[in-house]
Amino acid sequence: MENNTEQPNEHVYFINQLYRDFLLPEILGDDNAAILYWAGKRVARHYALSSFDDLVEFFNMAEFGNLVKVKERRSSITYELSGQTVEDRLNSDSKEFSLESGMIAETVQTTMDRPTECEIAILEKEKKVQLVARFG
After folding, report:
1. What's the rounded mean pLDDT across residues 1-13?
2. Is residue 111 part of a domain?
3. pTM over cut 0.70
4. Given 17, 40, 100, 108, which is the most exposed site by the fewest CB atoms within 10 A?
């Protein structure tokens, strides 16, 4: 096992990687993405995430990455998730960001009081994840 001391919260990243990128896909199989999406919605409700600032704080605390709002339109909000954790996950071929997507969908739905779904796009060159919350 390689010892990497460059990352300040290495243990948090390791636990996230162990659960989300190895154990859960093994247990959940083909339903992994759908279950993680709905789990993300439940996490947002449980922790009463009701604003963009709440999301940013939670994502930082959980070591999910740096979340920024990049565009807001009449029927959608576009976010980008970046940082070392995101780069490391993408470099290890983990392209699963359904938990984050579900959390964003639920928080935007709560904030806007409109049904919301969130789509994921991997921006390979930029080593970022784009999450687009669309509401009706």
Report:
1. 55
2. yes
3. yes
4. 17
SS3 of the chain: the string is CCCCCCCCCHHHHHHHHHHHHHHHHHHHHHHHHHHHHHHHHHHHHHCCCCCHHHHHHHHHHCCCCEEEEEEECCCEEEEEEECHHHHHHHHCCCCCCHHHHHHHHHHHHHHHCCCEEEEEEEECCCCEEEEEEEEC
Residue 63 region, left (φ>0) first, then alpha (ψ -120 to 50), else beta? left
**63: phi then psi, degrees, rounded to nearest 5:** 65, 35
Instruction: Classify residue 1: in a domain, yes or no.
Output: no
| Structural domain count of the chain | 1
CATH number at residue 126: 3.30.1380.20
85-134 pLDDT, tens digit each: 999 899 887 889 999 999 999 999 999 999 999 999 999 999 999 999 99
> Checking DSSP bridges between strand 66-72 and strand 128-135, what pairing results, if any?
unpaired
Q: Is residue 4 in some structural domain?
A: no
**Residue 8, exposed/middle/buried by CB under 10 A (0-12, 13-18, 19+)?**
exposed
